[in-house]
What does this fold into?
Amino acid sequence: MKVMSRVNNRTICFITFLLLMVSAACSDPDKSGNNPTVTPPTVTSVAPISGSAAACSNSIVTAVFSKAMNPASIDGSTFTLTASGVAVQGVVTYDASSDTAIFTPANPLALNTLYTATITTGAHDMFGNSLAGNFVWTFTTAAVACLPPAPPVSVGPPNASVGICQNTVISATFPQAMDPATITAATFTVSPGVTGTVTHDPSNKIFTFSPSTNLVLNKTYTVTITTGAKDPFGNALASNYVWTFTTATSACATPPPPAVISVTPPNGAAGVCPKTVITATFNEAMNPVTINTTTFTVAPGVTGTVTLDGTGKIAAFTPSSNLALSTTYTATITTGAQDLAGNPLAANYVWSFTTATKACQTAVPLGSAANFVILAGSTVTNTGPTIIAGGNVGLSPGSAVTGFPPGTLVTPAVMHITDPTAAQAQLDLTTAYNYAAGLPGGAVLPGDMSGLTFTPGLYKTSSTVMLSAGNVTLDAQGNANAVFIFQVGSTLTTLGSTHVILAGGAQAKNVFWQVSSSATLGTNSVFMGTILSLQSVTLDTGAALTGRALARNAAVTLDTNAVTAP
It folds into this structure.
């Protein structure tokens, strides 16, 4: 009996060991370090965003989950939309490719109305795990119907152009992102009788029609983008966009191949910031479909995303993570890169650069304040036809925003006046201001910047700073991610017609001016960067700002200005 007992005990222990091993194998942690079989799903983002105050009436309501969901659990009972407690009729679908639940209202939403969207705990993942609790958010529709998207800002071949090669590719570039599902061979047509395929770049702004065969010589063609083309909010073009071109009378001579004319960082550059973006500029517009991570690579072992700007000439490789320090990298554009006529580079274009030995200056963390180009503590006052583009106007906890109209906000910019969104932005501005003001070290910032050139880094003074005449240049030295931070101990003043010039790949989004008092931009001056002012920001008549005017405690005052998000 004792022998049998020992055998049974050993058997039980072995079986228990096996069960533990199987249990461990079935519960490996997911990419976030959590166990996917027991971790409840969460909602990571929604649209319209929670608390938004000017959502389009034809908005589609979406929620993105942290993991794949069971499609059968995403329906009209688990995803609802209400207004004043009354259910909105619509269709609920689930996009498994993006883990997104989609509520499409049966009719446009009412204007100037508060809506409540709810994802209930009936929604569960593929392992049966439900949300920990109902996820609820609200948004308010705009007081007026949303504007249609702007038509293309450029097309190729240009309207009414003649002598076009018969192997041309037709393209249209929009100023805003469009819904690629709505721009197809059915809504982007070339007549008479041309078939082809429609593709788009990663930004969803550049759409290209590639004919199946060469066009006919000496023939006029009409290109049409119909009102079936819509932006991501479901807004359709106001009218068909039409242009024409005429092909050449004889076959075109073989054109010279496209070429790379400049790159950043420059070939052979040293001390490059590890968080740099690598760019290549071509001598002509390129086919966006051929500019990708296969044709634009960075070695050794760099992964990332590749985009092409609105001109079709500047390709950018954005690494997934910072590059290693003190490392030489080789960037390559292959002959797979082609222009709009299908002509490839004559040979691979290769260049190299070496990263810095230490980390570079990082940008000021703006939080939700980054969504605003104008943000004030007391009032926002405007005189004249000021134009605000690319960001919102906010006020908190102040009293009033005046002067709109004649001032205008370019869609999708909206106003947030003493609402929770503006209040949060002010809290984030305070955090950003304190961060910028508290950075240690830094080079001396002269009292007058006129005629000077600054390289990336931190600069500070305990006194006033002015730009009394001419220009000041901020030179990124080929590093598109280079950061400039200026700590100003008192006031910042630029006089009339002075300019802040960006050079060497510098970008306004990476320039920050922390001002311990107030900032004033002179008449017809041009300024770059984000102003974080403890008190007020004033833009005199005609001053142009590419950046942000963010005032913690006092007013932002405008007068016939152009303010554009960086």
In short: The chain has five domains: 1-31, 43-140, 154-247, 268-355, 367-564.
